[in-house]
């Protein structure tokens, strides 16, 4: 075993997560390469490593980026089906034995809304391991009645005694923990980031063939492009974007100057397409699902990316588009807004459901291409600080804290 900083032995870190996730894979490779951290990942299921039916996209998915390369991992055994995620499933077992056998120091758990994760945290505490938790929850994404909030406070009273450190993905997530009594000294910044280097490189490569893609899509040169990338579900409010786009027409008859491209699948797609066909225009495209290596071409092509959701704990497509140097427009219910979107500097934030406000924001951007490009450059500047390096720094700070504070739980 190699020695880390200050000649201390490596921290043996076990990470528990439901399944291999395309956004997390490069981060796990980065953590595994960090001196002083000996990482092993435990997955509850391996369904995402194969072709599988995504219940939201309503499509067979096979990710085109490596999900398990560059770090040590194990798929936990389970009883019954492992191709569905719920509170009870997969019904895993065997982690306690592996934690003991691996002589781990810390268990890091992604999410706390599954029975097995609670069992894992309890087993870790019994065995003397420290526990870290990372989750997406915010007060915006989970409004609660007074009674439910009281119940949640009881829930967190137990959680605070199981968990030594909370890894906050952003400002709203940190405020959420604090609102339920977690001391600020036990909250560590581990921002929700994507592989910036990957998306920036792919966007640069795409820029050289931008006009080829435009021609392949049948889009006229010079017209700006508004892009939507997400599931086409009611909560994502693609319908709000379509209505806001319609208002860009000077008289609701003539075609708006910009194009509108939808990337994604979901149960709302037929409704959106039916509505679009009622319009006498050829400026709206539904391009379906695009895989990770394909997306940078479309980020590079657009002038602005829009995420109008009424429920969005974070919104990693915003990170991705910012890596292409693009302006972004989000609703005030998108969790990344306070951290990544600076109104007037790299994009705009509008009140969720305010179609007129969204339309006005889009009009101001697409009508002024030089300003739109300036905002895009600011996006790139901001996202360069929201990175895997910041994640590793936050994780190491949390690990140092739990190593030095043997009685960190309160």
Helix-strand makeup class? alpha/beta
Biggest beta-sheet profile: 7 strands, parallel
If strands are numbered along the chain, what order do they take across the biggest sheet?
A: 5-2-1-8-9-10-11
CATH architecture of the largest domain: 3-Layer(aba) Sandwich
The percentage of residues in β strands lies in 15-25%
Return Rg in Å. 22 Å
Number of strands: 17
| CATH homologous superfamily identity of the largest domain | Glycogen Phosphorylase B
CATH class of the largest domain: Alpha Beta
User: Overall mean pLDDT score?
Assistant: 92
Question: Would you identify the regions where 5 or more consecutive residues have pLDDT less than 50?
Answer: 1-7
Oligomer: single chain
Shape: elongated
CATH topology annotation of the largest domain: Rossmann fold
Task: Give the proportion of residues in helices.
Answer: 25-40%
Distance between the termini: 32 Å
How many domains? The number is 2
What does this structure look like?
The protein is an alpha/beta fold. It has two domains: 5-193 and 387-404, Glycogen Phosphorylase B (Rossmann fold, 3-Layer(aba) Sandwich), CATH 3.40.50.2000; 196-383, 3-Layer(aba) Sandwich (Rossmann fold). The protein is 37% helix and 17% strand. The protein has helices spanning 25-32, 95-101, 115-126, 146-162, 171-179, 196-207, 210-216, 238-246, 269-277, 295-301, 316-323, 337-340, 355-366, 369-383, 388-404; strands spanning 11-17, 37-43, 52-54, 59-61, 72-75, 78-79, 91-92, 106-110, 130-134, 165-168, 187-189, 225-229, 259-263, 284-286, 304-307, 327-331, 347-350. The protein has a seven-stranded parallel β-sheet with strand order 5-2-1-8-9-10-11, sandwiched between helices. A six-stranded parallel β-sheet has the order 14-13-12-15-16-17, sandwiched between helices. Strand 15 (304-307), helix 11 (316-323) and strand 16 form a beta-alpha-beta unit. Helix 11 packs across helix 14 (369-383).
């Amino acid at each position: 075993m190699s020695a880390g900083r200050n000649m201390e032995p490596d921290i043996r870190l076990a990470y528990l997560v439901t399944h291999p996730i395309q956004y997390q894979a490069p981060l796990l490779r980065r953590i595994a390469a960090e001196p002083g951290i000996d990482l092993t990942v435990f997955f509850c299921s391996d369904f995402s490593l194969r072709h599988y039916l995504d219940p939201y996209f309503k499509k067979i998915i096979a990710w085109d980026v490596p999900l398990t390369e560059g770090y040590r991992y194990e798929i936990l055994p389970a009883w019954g089906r492992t191709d569905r995620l719920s509170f009870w499933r997969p019904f895993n077992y065997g982690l306690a034995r592996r934690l003991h056998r691996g002589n781990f120091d810390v268990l890091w758990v992604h999410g706390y809304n599954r029975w097995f994760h609670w069992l894992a945290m309890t087993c870790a505490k019994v065995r003397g391991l420290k526990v870290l938790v990372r989750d997406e929850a915010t007060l915006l994404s989970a409004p609660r009645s007074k009674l439910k909030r009281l119940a949640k406070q009881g829930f967190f009273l137990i959680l605070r005694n199981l968990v030594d450190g909370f890894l906050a993905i952003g400002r709203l997530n940190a405020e959420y923990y604090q609102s339920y009594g977690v001391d600020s000294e036990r909250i560590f910044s581990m921002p929700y980031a994507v592989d910036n280097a990957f998306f920036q490189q792919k966007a640069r490569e795409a820029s050289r063939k931008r006009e080829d893609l435009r021609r392949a899509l049948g889009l006229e040169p010079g017209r700006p492009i508004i892009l939507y990338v997400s599931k086409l579900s009611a909560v994502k409010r693609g319908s709000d974007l379509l209505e806001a786009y319609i208002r860009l027409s000077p008289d609701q008859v003539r075609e708006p100057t910009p194009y509108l491209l939808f990337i994604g699948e979901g149960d709302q797609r037929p409704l959106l397409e039916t509505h679009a066909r009622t319009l006498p225009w050829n400026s709206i495209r539904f391009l379906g699902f695009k895989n990770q290596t394909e997306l940078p071409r479309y980020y590079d092509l657009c002038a602005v990316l829009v995420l109008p959701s009424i429920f969005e704990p974070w919104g990693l497509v915003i990170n991705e588009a910012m890596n292409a140097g693009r302006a972004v427009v989000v609703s005030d219910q998108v969790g990344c807004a306070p951290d990544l979107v600076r109104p007037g500097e790299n994009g705009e934030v509008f009140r969720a459901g305010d179609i007129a406000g969204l339309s006005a924001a889009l009009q101001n951007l697409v009508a002024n291409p030089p300003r739109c490009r300036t905002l895009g450059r600011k996006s790139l500047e901001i996202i360069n600080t929201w990175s895997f390096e910041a994640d590793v720094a936050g994780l190491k700070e949390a690990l140092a804290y739990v190593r030095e504070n043997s009685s960190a739980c309160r």
